[in-house]
Amino acid sequence: MNLIPLFLLATASLLSAGTAQAADEEALAKAKNCLACHAIDKKVVGPSYKDVAKKYTAKDEAMLAEKVIKGGKGVWGPVPMPANPSVTPDEANKLVKWILSLK
């Protein structure tokens, strides 16, 4: 039995699943109004998500998820990030993991 077509199909499935998951997180960011102040690759009011990904690592995930929910100030300039109490801890974790994957 030739395993190459099966391997290629499995690889394609994994790649498309990753792309779909990233689209889900981007849709979540849009639904939670994150994209009103942030963009993936350019500064808006807040830093670009790619700049955030360059600055932080996986060890910062819990701190960043807390900032998504509670807001923050002083790290990226004088404009504070407002609190987002409608974002659940699970959603904040998903958003942070997605943002950090944008390196």
TrEMBL record:
Heme c binds at C34, H38, M81. Residues 20-103 form the Cytochrome c domain. The keyword Heme applies. Keywords: Electron transport, Heme, Iron, Metal-binding, Signal, Transport. Binds 1 heme c group covalently per subunit. Residues 1-22 form the signal peptide. GO terms for molecular function: electron transfer activity; heme binding; iron ion binding. It comes from the Bacteria. The keyword Signal applies. This is C-type cytochrome. It comes from Candidatus Accumulibacter affinis. The lineage of its organism: Bacteria, Pseudomonadati, Pseudomonadota, Betaproteobacteria, Candidatus Accumulibacter.
